[in-house]
Amino acid sequence: MARTLLTADLTAAQREEIRHLLDVAFLGNFSDDDWDHSLGGLHFLVEEQGTIVAHAAVVQRSFLHGDRTWRCGYVEAVAVHPDRRGQGFAADVMDAAEDIIDRSYDVGALSASAAGRGLYVARGWLPWLGRTAVLAPAGLTSTPEDDGSTFVRFLADGPHLDRAGTLACDFRNGDVW
Question: Cα 100 from chain centroid?
Answer without folding.
Answer: 12
